Amino acid sequence: MRSFDLTADPSRPDLLALDEARWHAIVECRSDQDGRFVYAVRTTGIYCRPSCRSRLPLRWHVRLFRRAAEAASEGYRPCKRCRPDALQQPDEQLATRVAECLASHLGEAVPLRRLGETFHSSPYHLQRLFKRVYGVSPAHYHKRLRLLAAAERLRSTSDTVSVIALRGGWRSVAHFAAAFRGHFGLTPTAYRASQAPFANQEACSDE
Ligand SMILES: [Zn+2]
């Protein structure tokens, strides 16, 4: 990889340039390139190994990542055919399993202690490992996922803000509203008003 390790965007050193050599590796399904990078397809939300025999995507829909965990942290799912996530180092596999666990528990807080118990690891070790792979702590990662899920509910349902806060496992509407504002820069009500088809349907006065 070193021989053509060109970085496309200096502000994103984690992204690799889709140069001719890498594109040809994808076109030719070259297994000797597996483990050197994975490619994600914007339109499908799936990422693959270079050797994957699935249909060739359009070149401008492709994004490259050095590691499966990086593609996963941007919301891409591993291809079921080539299982690019199976190429991960043991540490990355564990971090990915933690991330999947967090993503499947969006309606509650998941304390680090519980993650430690679930994955038979010391909370301290888990925290450090996760941070190394994902760049943020499990708590930070989980909070972001929960807020994104809440934002999705605000956009696509007519549930009140307090129902969304409750279902999202927040201690109170005030806690939820503060966290939401910290992330999106808007209160949940203002966010909904700026986005949703439900914007004019009802006034959510319970915030
Ligand atoms: Zn694939």
Automatic annotation (TrEMBL):
> Keyword Methyltransferase, does the record have it?
yes
Q: Which domain of life is it from?
A: Bacteria
Ordered alphabetically, the record's keywords are: Activator, DNA-binding, Methyltransferase, Transcription, Transcription regulation, Transferase
Query: Which Gene3D superfamilies does its entry note?
Result: DNA Methylphosphotriester Repair Domain, Homeodomain-like
Could you tell me which residue ranges the HTH araC/xylS-type domain spans? 96-194
**GO function term, MF aspect, one:** sequence-specific DNA binding
Q: Which SMART domains match?
A: HTH_ARAC
Pfam families linked to this entry: Ada_Zn_binding (PF02805), HTH_18 (PF12833)
What does this protein need as cofactor? Zn(2+)
GO biological processes: DNA repair; methylation
Segments traversing the membrane: none
Please verify whether the record's keywords include Ribonucleoprotein. Answer: no
Residues of the signal peptide = none
PANTHER family in the cross-refs: HTH-TYPE TRANSCRIPTIONAL ACTIVATOR RHAS-RELATED
Protein name per its UniProtKB record: Methylphosphotriester-DNA--protein-cysteine methyltransferase family protein
